[in-house]
Amino acid sequence: MSSSSGQDIIECAERLRARVGPDLHDRVAEAVYARAAEIAGRVVRRTESRRAEWGLLADRILTSRWLGFPIMLLLLGGVLWLTIAGANVPSELLYGGVF
What we know:
Helix content is 84%, strand content 0%. It is built from 5 helices and no strands.
């Protein structure tokens, strides 16, 4: 392959890239996901149940911007408190059982 043909290929690739635009990868990925959603919509059957509704509600609450962080911080604080306060319980049980 000569250097001029290599340069021709590069110039052709640059022209094609300019023609399709910078968001080609985004458009391809979007089309793939849209097609997958279409296929899944025709194939998957959904049954609505009370358990699923509660799960979706809990998911919406725990992953929301305004409630998710405070709830997770409260849970982390509760685990930390339980770890510190509850560390003496097994020690006291062992001490009471041995002595």
